[in-house]
């Protein structure tokens, strides 16, 4: 079922969503200033191509230790991201998710857009894992 949902997601908008995230990551990588956010945008872009069966969790929960993106610097990077781009991107995913939630068939896809909206608010310090692996929640 997860494979079927990911295929339908990819065909009916997931490709565009993932491509937009990857384009944003490429633009961030081109600028020296945006380089700290490029990795997070790239991870979300790959996640946006096939989000069913996977979820984003803090990297600290996976590795068991702090790193550059999970400490104080990660917090500052997430605040800057939220102010400059995160809330716009999250709003985009919420609007699309709300439009898809109008129909029963669109509910699973709306849920994935809402999930992407939450990730878009603070992407630095997160990692993508299979849904069953996130037992800490």
Secondary structure elements and pairings:
Elements: H1 2-30, H2 35-49, E1 54-58, H3 59-63, H4 72-100, H5 107-121, E2 126-130
Antiparallel strand pairs: 1-2
Helix pairs in contact: 1-2, 4-5
Count, helices: 5
Reading side by side through the largest sheet, how are the strands ordered?
1-2
Strand share of the residues?
A: 5-15%
Structural class: mainly alpha
- Low-pLDDT runs of 5+ residues are none
Instruction: Return the domain count.
Output: 1
Residue share in helix: 55-70%
From the spread of the alpha carbons, the general shape counts as: globular
Main beta sheet: 2 strands, antiparallel
| CA-based gyration radius | 15 Å
Order of helices and strands: HHEHHHE
- Overall average pLDDT: 89
**Total number of β-strand segments?**
2
Terminal residue distance: 23 Å
Explain this structure:
There is one protein chain. The protein has 137 residues and is mainly alpha-helical. It has one domain. It is built from five helices and two strands. The chain has helices at 2-30, 35-49, 59-63, 72-100, 107-121, and strands at 54-58, 126-130. A two-stranded antiparallel sheet has the order 1-2. Helix 1 (2-30) runs antiparallel to helix 2 (35-49) and helix 4 runs antiparallel to helix 5 (107-121). It starts with a helix and ends in a 7-residue tail after the last strand. The model has no long low-confidence stretch (mean pLDDT 89).
């Amino acid at each position: 079922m997860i494979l079927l949902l990911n295929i339908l997601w990819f065909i009916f908008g997931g490709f565009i969503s993932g491509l937009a995230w990857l384009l944003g990551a490429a633009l961030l990588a081109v600028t020296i200033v945006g380089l700290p956010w490029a990795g997070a945008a790239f991870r979300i872009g790959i996640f946006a191509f096939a989000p069913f069966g996977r979820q984003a969790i803090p990297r600290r929960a996976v590795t068991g230790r702090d790193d550059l993106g999970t400490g104080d610097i990660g917090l500052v990077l997430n605040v800057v991201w939220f102010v400059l781009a995160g809330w716009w991107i999250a709003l985009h995913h919420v609007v699309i998710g709300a439009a898809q939630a109008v129909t029963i068939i669109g509910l699973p896809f709306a849920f994935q857009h809402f999930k992407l909206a939450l990730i878009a608010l603070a992407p630095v310090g997160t990692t993508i894992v299979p849904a069953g692996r996130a037992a800490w929640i």
